[in-house]
């Protein structure tokens, strides 16, 4: 098959040769003449032109075109209705004048045959020409690119020669046998042997002296076009009678096969300009070319031509138009034409069904299918495949099962496309037992069947079954393709088995499996999830074939590994490559903005999303809301959330988690209740976020309500929800209930063990925490970084410095777990609580990465307890640079300086706080009484029982003094504002 460039060169050369055809010879046959006009409509050349083309073989035979054995008529004259001869007008070549802008008018003079059929033909041609002028105005900009393609060229080279009679001894049966053989060849699959047969028939035609080939030549041309021998097709095309539509139709079909839709349309208009009337076999390819260029307007104008010519109701032309409209989203136009069709065969029904499927109108698809069943047309494999695809995408398992019964009754259950679509439907709807039963029942499973079953297992989380089936596929001798590997690689990502990922990558290279975009994206994803960032980066830069899916995989992978700057760099490169980021890409880059707290950049991305009208999607709206909440703008996050028209579980979970993590536990619980009222489905993330809010509030009664809900539902066996429940009971002070939940948990995992170990450690029960740690190892569970974080924290709360040091070394040396920022923060807290501030500072200096605000904040708090002003000022210097708007750091340093009597430092710290606009956030506390939570702020009088509360506190202070309590009198105050000892309020 010629390349795209070769086809263009061939196309240009065809017209340069075609322009050399004798205009006079052609005019004698079809009586065509064009008269150029100006833009005002005035005729430039006073001579009138004519257009009278014969559009069918019957009419052509009357005018000495084709294989007629009648004597030739006078080429320069014609007859009127009364039988008199008159001079036949000669064809003139159109002249392009710069001032005319390529506009022509066409005038029809008296045709040389005056019967009713020819008159009707002329009227049809008048309609065609009117529409053609309309087309010309719309595609003129395209035509001007090819100025050397004139409608009829100059310098004719073909002589207007008389067609010789047939040679002596030629048998008519030879022509019929050749025509029959060509018809058989056209029905065969195009391959080199078929091309060779066509060339042999063409040779026999030449050897038998058939000059005026007619039907034979058109069929040979069809063989050349179908076999992609366009050079032979071009040579033969010039030798045919071009007053017929068939040669043109075959050439238009050839350009459509090549994907050169613009040239196919240019050839169609060349045909109209030549004066040849298109037939019903021309328009399907022309409509397909319009669809290939996504030109709805041009397609509709050609539809008008079809309607005027009376081909609209033809089943082939009508099917092409319906498919064109459906593919371009004009489903209303498609249905309107479908309703007008007098005869609807199975192809037409399938085209209409496919159109509704592509547009996603599931209800209309089902309704149309039921209407089809009420007719005499029986659904076939294509019908069932289209309907089942809707059941797959919409999760309509009940209707899909009914369709399965119809398929069995029709005997199509073993048809490969139908069986594979059924299998995909069962897998998507989580009916894996039915999917596997169908897979095992298929007598001949092809590659699509294996891929569908493996993909079904992976999508539903059955990774072991997917791997086992993949091995059986290899053992069965079925060679996997790129889709197979793209389906199986997510199972490796789940287990983070880097060695297995590399083995599959080596197999792909060794077996020469095409590394297409989907497989490359899957490999990049598995390397990122296996923490091999370098390998993913190398694979990304391996070749220049990169699309938006690859870029999205790189951005997501960098975000997953905490490399947010790298993710933003890939996003910038994507924009420099002039690629349009889609919704998934934007949803992937927003977490990078959130991870860097880059609020300005996040707003820019949000603005781009609004500009493109993509904010309405659930997952993108959830990503925007999450970005704002992690950048500290919970108010903007809530606005985005409330504006979303549709909210799925992910949106609700994101907002509930954001409120819980940003110090708004009450709002989180309220959202959790509202989520249930609006019919959204709770999952483990919803339950975990709500329980975390109960733990932060704390609100034990809310937690118990959620636990009862878990018991009624199917969430009691979820590890994350049970771990959140253990953490909630522990933080609400009920360690016994936390241990009871842990003991009744079936199938404990590392998360469950970590939760109970941390619960005992936070309550100061170090020995119980260590006993649980040893039991965890005895049960065969490997401790992770969270486990050691809980142990070191427990040692810090119990003052066991040496124990904390031991488990820190055990984590890094014995288990090979790299210490993270939170581990170093715990070690700093471990030494700081014990008053060993210098060693805590040495831990900070020995860190392999820069400490964050949490580490310096821990040191500052310890300095406040132990009165180390010098080290506190050093820690504060770093904190004011990292988090300048946190009022707690300023207050801690100011109080510490005041305790030490450094009043200049106090004034300086307070002034710095005022200059930066930092407002002290008041601290508050709460208490739960009779399942009701009461919040208090310092000097708060908003509580309805505040007078009784303050009276009780005053009486309590008097009782404390009677018991020997003495207020701190060594609190140093500023000399000018120091109160007397009797006025000190404790």
UniProtKB/TrEMBL annotation:
Coiled coil: none annotated. Residues 66-80 have a biased composition (Polar residues). Gene3D superfamilies: Tetratricopeptide repeat domain (1.25.40.10). Residues 58-93 are annotated as: Disordered. Pfam families: E_motif (PF20431), PPR (PF01535), PPR_2 (PF13041), PPR_3 (PF13812). PANTHER family: PENTATRICOPEPTIDE REPEAT-CONTAINING PROTEIN. This is Pentatricopeptide repeat-containing protein. It comes from Rhododendron griersonianum.
